[in-house]
Amino acid sequence: MNALIPAAWAQAAGGPGGPSSQFMPLLMIVVMFGALYFLMIRPQQKKMKDHQNLIARLAAGDEVVTSGGLLGRVTEVGDAFVTIEVADGVRVKVQKVQVTQLVPKGTLKSA
User: Fold this and answer.
1) Are 95 and 67 in contact (CB under 8 A)?
2) pLDDT in tens, 88-107
3) ∠ at Cα 35 (101, 17), nearest 5°?
4) Which of 13, 15, 90, 100 is 20 to 30 A distant from 36 in Cα terms?
5) Which of 106, 103, 108, 104 lies closest to 85 in space, CA to CA?
6) What pLDDT score was predicted for residue 1?
7) Are 65 and 100 contacting, i.e. CB atoms less than 8 angstroms apart?
8) Whole-angstrom distance, CA of residue 72 vs CA of residue 75
9) How far is Cα 4 from Cα 56, in angstroms, rounded to an integer?
10) What is the model's pTM?
């Protein structure tokens, strides 16, 4: 067992690497940022853009679902608020950004 210790000290340490080993940490950071962009940032931006398009094209008569789970028909569209009729004669005013989904017409009758 004692013979192994001197042999371990006798091994030469690795010399300095070439130019590629100096840039390896920088390359890894760039690769990680690229993966983060394509896996998290880009899909989130696309989702936000789709939601903004949905809100911009809201019109009276559309059937929508809000983030709170309310299903109703849009009766009035304002600048920041939308009035939704959730039952006969029952109208609720919600923020436009709370509308999460546009459902096909006729969904309200079947629900």
Assistant:
1) no
2) 999 999 999 999 999 998 88
3) 175
4) 100
5) 108
6) 54
7) yes
8) 9
9) 75
10) 0.69
CA distance 99 to 84: 10
Q: Which pair of structure tokens corresponds to residue 24? A: 């390896």
**Length reported for the chain:** 111
Query: Quick one: CATH architecture of 59-110?
Result: Roll (2.30)
Query: What are the residues whose beta carbons fall under 8 Å from the beta carbon of 92, sequence distance 6 or more?
Result: 70, 72, 83, 84, 85, 86
Tokens of 74: 């849009």
| HSE-up of residue 67 (Cα within 13 Å, Cβ side) | 7
Task: For the chain, give the mean pLDDT.
Answer: 87
Residue 78 falls in which region: left (phi positive, over 0), alpha (psi -120 to 50) or beta = beta
Residue 111 contacts by C-beta under 8 Å, 6 or more apart in sequence?
A: 71
